[in-house]
Amino acid sequence: MTNSCFALAPDGKCRVLLVGECEGESCPFYKTKAQLDHERAKARESICRLSDEDRTWIAEKYYDENKLWRELGA
Questions:
Q1: Of 25, 31, 32, 39, which one has the greatest count of Cβ atoms within 10 A?
Q2: Would you state the pLDDT for residue 50?
Q3: Are the beta carbons of 5 and 22 closer than 8 angstroms?
Q4: Given phi > 0 = left and psi -120 to 50 = alpha, else beta, which region is 13?
Q5: 49 Cα distance to chain centroid
Q6: How far is residue 22's CA from residue 12's CA, in Å, rounded to a whole number?
Q7: What is the mean pLDDT of the chain?
Q8: What sign results for the dihedral spanned by CA atoms 54, 59, 65, 69?
Q9: Distance CA 39, CA 22 (A)
Q10: Pseudo-torsion of CA 28, 39, 67, 51, nearest 10°?
Q11: DSSP SS3 for 59
């Protein structure tokens, strides 16, 4: 079976976790690029539903006032 994990590097190592070899589908963090894209789209939708006040509060508290949602088109 071909490993299609989004984090699989060409050398067979994980680009996300500090592990030696990629564990493939047995890894609890395994997901395909399509699954990752779907999760990111859901997160963007959640951000868009927040009020500007709530987004500003989050940016100030966690991102040193960097309003990341502007890059997301929110």
A1: 31
A2: 92
A3: yes
A4: beta
A5: 18
A6: 6
A7: 84
A8: negative
A9: 21
A10: -120
A11: helix
11: which 2 tokens?
Answer: 């050398």
Residue with tokens 């309003």: 67
Question: Does the pTM of the predicted model rise above 0.85?
Answer: no
* E strand intervals along 1-74: none
Tokens of 53: 């006040």
Distance CA 31, CA 7 (A): 8
Residue 12 corresponds to which tokens in the numbers above?
């067979």
How many residues can be counted in the chain? 74
One-letter amino acid at 70 equals R
Q: What is the pLDDT of residues 37-68, one digit of tens each?
A: 999 999 889 988 999 899 888 878 877 666 66
Residue with tokens 């070899």: 21
**Within 13 Å and on the Cβ side, how many CA atoms surround 37?**
4
Q: What token pair was written down for 33?
A: 């690029």
